[in-house]
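Rotation project, supervised by the postdoc (A.L.). Task for the rotation student: set up a whole-complex structure prediction and record inputs and outputs verbatim in this book. Inputs entered:
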Amino acid sequence: MAVLLLADVNGGQLATDSVAKALTAVAALGEVHLLVAGPASAAAEAAGLAGAAKVLHAEDAGHGLAEGLADLVVSLAGGYSHIAAAATPYAKNVLPRVAALLDVMVLSDVTAVVDADTFERPIYAGNAFQTVKSSDKVKVFTVRTAAFAAAGTGGSAAVSPVAAKPSDLSAWVEDKVATSDRPELTSAGIVVSGGRGVGSQADFALIEKLADKLGAAVGASRAAVDSGYAPNDWQVGQTGKVVAPQLYVAVGISGAIQHLAGMKDSKVIVAINKDEEAPIFQVADYGLVADLFTAVPELIEKL
Amino acid sequence: MKVLVPVKRVIDYNVKVRVKADGSGVDLANVKMSMNPFDEIAVEEAIRLKEKGVATEVVVVSIGVKQAQETLRTALAMGADRAILIEAAADVHTDIEPLAVAKLLAGVVRDEAPGLVLAGKQAIDNDMNATGQMLAALLGWSQATFASELAVEGDKATVTREVDGGLQTISVKLPAVVSVDLRLNEPRYASLPNIMKAKAKPLATKTPADYGVDVAPRLTVVKTTEPAGRKAGVKVGSVDELIAKLKDEAGVI
Ligand SMILES: Cc1cc2nc3c(=O)[nH]c(=O)nc-3n(C[C@H](O)[C@H](O)[C@H](O)COP(=O)(O)OP(=O)(O)OC[C@H]3O[C@@H](n4cnc5c(N)ncnc54)[C@H](O)[C@@H]3O)c2cc1C
Ligand SMILES: Nc1ncnc2c1ncn2[C@@H]1O[C@H](COP(=O)(O)O)[C@@H](O)[C@H]1O
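Outputs recorded:
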């Protein structure tokens, strides 16, 4: 059977890395058709991903808002055994709606596709993993991108148009999207994150400087985001982004389970914290007990 | 306008979870349970809407075991007016799936006709992040997920959503389902007098049969496991030593 994979489009751009990782996750389930609701350039880029058998292209009908997009997915659902997407806010907004319209359950954040009916996913902030078997006629799920390698390029899938109709239930007003030259949080090889210990938005520049020195993406704890030191989409954790870089540097972060849920699969973890009892040291490969305001500038200088 | 808030009783977010020896799930016997943190935020927002004169009544509903009464009483003590408990399970380990929860909530919506449903973004036990969206689908309503700001004006709500890359503002027609994110507000604590007063507020008890909903799960648990633990590494004595380790031992920079 075939898989319909909903591709993330943000601000008119294909979220290439997420889509490429989701492609890997579902590859064993059958032929994969990518659904791209967005500009033709996004569809063309999707067509170049290795493993995409076909691209269904809908001119964006309303900024990916859930109502219209869910109707579009449902209109195409016949003939697919699986409907999937990367577990991003874009897809988590839409796929549960799709699942309910099809009268099936949804599975969020799948970390392994065991077979056509069986999936593994984290529960309780990643403190347990559950393997579940679905009895539904169509499997609707999102995949945790940090668990999969990205599919390559070099594909040449045919692009065919599909018709979408925006819903009048909701209307787009505005996007406030920060653009940055830094690597994306979920695909970066190195992530430097700051927590409440950084103390202010002005001092968060120190974290950014260290990140830039390392060519890293910047992350933050919830406390740092809540305090206004960092924007919301930098939050790493149970309810933020899940990352698994080669190197994760946690600065002034205590290591609450909700934060660990988003980074404990990183290959190497470094913690800089002035409290030697901080729980972050229990997962850190290298711990430096120090005041971040002396350690981080020294690190920036010596790297 | 009436506001409906579904609140789930979940393991307290500070509790360290343990997987049951038979792999059927997480051990919830004699574990501290609390209101799902996102639902506290939803209750708070509903009460603020009432305080602003936008909402006329706040109704809270919980689906699960009868102990979910405690969760509902907490919401009543925060300031909700009335509660509905749908007793759908006898064992605290039975989790009702989001699709069934959404169907039951749709039944409650048909009875109560709220103008707004404020749900949590996700339950911190199953981490599904689905119920609000499913409910909106079943009702054919508009939805706004991951809300960090909410303003109700007439027959519309303007919602700022936490999305990839930043924030998105949308306008949804009411009635709507809004799911709330962490930064929408800071929930209040219930005062002792309000906890006492909450005991006298109405709490109706229902069953899934009252709504004609089958809550049989679509997913069966094959196994539950604990993730591979991570061992604590070493403490380094200086920035120089850290750099040396990262270069020579780990080879990551
Ligand atoms: C439902 C729910 C979901 C949540 N989701 C998330 C999530 O997705 N992500 C997340 O991160 N959190 C999440 N949290 C919050 C989490 O529980 C913690 O509150 C949060 O992670 C704490 O952030 P922190 O480590 O920055 O702050 P704190 O716990 O306050 O830690 C600050 C640390 O900085 C250190 N420090 C202070 N000054 C210095 C200095 N000068 N030099 C060096 N170190 C210093 C301190 O020793 C301390 O260890 C969630 C909570 C709930 C209830
Ligand atoms: N059993 C339940 N009882 C009441 N509300 C629930 C229940 N399950 C889910 N919800 C609501 O739906 C939200 C999202 O839950 P979930 O989709 O399970 O992650 C929660 O924050 C609650 O507002």
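Student's summary: The mean pLDDT of chain B is 97.
Supervisor addendum: Residues B 6-8, 36, 38-39, 62-64, 96, 98, 101, 119-120, 122-123, 126, 128-132 surround adenosine monophosphate (ligand 2) (CB under 6 Å).
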